[in-house]
C-alpha cells in the first residue's frame, strides 16, 4: 500500500444532519483571505473532497467543513459539499464549534461567545457548556425577507444569499407524515426537476402544513435541488417559513420534519427577518482516512 494522503475528521450530527469537520488534511490553503481560500477549495481538490463525502466513507447526506486558522476570529470555516447542495449552512457553524470545543481543539472563552469567519462574513455564536459538554448552541440569522409572492409559492431570501420556495401541502396529499412519504417524494422530485429545467435560482423547496393544534406549529419537508429530502428542519428552512407564513404577532414557531426532528425559532424583538435558534449538536465519532492511489474506489460513489 502506498499511503498518499491522510485526513483527520470529527463527525457531528445536528438535528439529524451529518457534518464531517476536517481538522487535518493535505488540503493546503495558505492564503489568509477567506474568500480566496473558499474559491480555491471550491475549484480544486476534487479527489480529496470525493474521498471525504462519497460512499463508502461518506454518503449523500453528509456535509464537509474545513477548519483553518483566522486572523480576525476564533477560526475560519469553509464548506465543501455534494453537487446541488448549498455551500453555506448555519448548522455547520454549530457542528464545527461543538467539535472543536468538545475535543479540546479550541480554548473556551470567558463569555462562551465565539467568532467564526466564513466567506459569508463573521458570525458570533454562543455556546452553553456544562462540564465540558456543549448543551446547546445559540445562532442568530442575519436577515430574511420575502422576494416574491404568487398563488403557488412564496420566495424567501435568506441573508440576501440563499433563496427558498415555500409551498403549501397540495390537497391530494393528506398530511406530512411517513405514511405519505412516497407521494411527498414524488412531488418533490417533480417540482425540483421542473424548477431546474426553468433555470430558477434557488437552494431548496419547502413543503409546509400548518398544524391545527397550534398556529405556531408547522410540519415541513425541505428538498434540495436534486430532490433529496433533508433530514433536518434546518435553520434556513425554519427562518424561511417564519418569514413567509406567519402573519400574526407570534414571537416563535416550531418547525417539525416528517422524521419528527423539531426546531424552534424566536423572533428578535424590534427587528424584521431576524430570529434566534437554539440547537444541540452531538459528536458521533472521529476518523482518519487514507488516500491510497491503488484504491479502486478512491473517488467513491453515491447511493440514491
From TrEMBL:
<dbReference type="GO" id="GO:0047580">
    <property type="term" value="F:4-hydroxyproline epimerase activity"/>
</dbReference>
<comment type="similarity">
    <text>Belongs to the proline racemase family.</text>
</comment>
<protein>
    <submittedName>
        <fullName>Proline racemase</fullName>
    </submittedName>
</protein>
<dbReference type="Pfam" id="PF05544">
    <property type="entry name" value="Pro_racemase"/>
</dbReference>
<dbReference type="InterPro" id="IPR008794">
    <property type="entry name" value="Pro_racemase_fam"/>
</dbReference>
Amino acid at each position: 500500500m502506498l499511503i498518499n494522503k491522510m485526513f483527520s475528521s470529527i463527525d457531528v450530527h445536528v438535528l439529524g444532519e451529518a457534518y464531517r469537520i476536517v481538522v487535518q488534511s493535505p488540503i493546503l490553503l495558505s492564503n489568509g483571505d477567506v474568500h480566496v481560500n473558499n474559491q480555491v477549495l471550491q475549484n480544486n481538490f476534487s479527489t480529496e473532497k470525493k474521498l471525504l463525502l462519497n460512499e463508502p466513507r461518506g454518503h449523500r447526506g453528509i456535509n464537509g467543513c474545513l477548519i483553518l486558522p483566522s486572523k480576525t476570529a476564533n477560526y475560519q470555516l469553509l464548506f465543501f459539499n455534494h453537487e446541488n447542495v448549498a455551500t453555506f449552512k448555519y448548522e455547520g457553524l454549530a457542528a464545527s464549534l461543538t467539535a472543536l470545543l468538545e475535543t479540546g481543539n479550541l480554548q473556551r472563552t470567558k463569555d462562551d461567545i465565539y467568532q467564526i469567519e466564513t466567506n459569508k462574513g463573521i458570525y458570533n455564536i454562543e455556546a452553553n457548556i456544562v462540564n465540558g459538554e456543549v448543551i446547546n448552541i445559540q445562532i442568530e440569522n442575519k436577515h430574511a425577507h420575502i422576494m416574491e409572492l404568487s398563488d403557488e409559492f412564496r420566495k424567501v431570501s435568506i441573508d440576501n444569499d440563499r433563496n427558498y420556495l415555500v409551498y403549501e401541502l397540495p390537497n391530494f396529499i393528506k398530511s406530512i407524515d411517513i405514511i405519505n412519504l412516497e407521494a411527498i417524494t414524488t412531488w418533490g422530485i417533480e417540482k425540483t426537476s421542473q424548477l431546474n429545467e426553468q433555470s430558477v435560482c434557488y437552494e431548496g423547496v419547502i413543503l409546509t402544513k400548518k398544524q391545527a393544534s397550534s398556529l405556531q406549529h408547522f410540519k415541513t419537508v425541505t428538498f434540495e435541488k436534486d430532490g433529496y429530502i433533508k433530514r433536518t428542519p434546518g435553520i434556513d428552512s425554519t427562518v424561511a417559513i417564519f418569514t413567509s407564513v406567519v402573519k400574526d404577532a407570534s414571537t416563535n414557531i416550531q418547525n417539525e420534519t416528517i422524521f419528527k426532528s423539531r426546531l424552534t425559532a424566536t423572533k428578535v424583538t424590534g427587528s424584521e427577518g431576524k430570529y434566534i435558534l437554539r440547537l444541540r449538536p452531538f459528536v458521533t465519532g472521529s476518523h482518519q482516512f487514507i488516500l491510497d492511489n491503488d484504491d479502486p474506489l478512491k473517488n467513491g460513489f453515491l447511493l440514491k
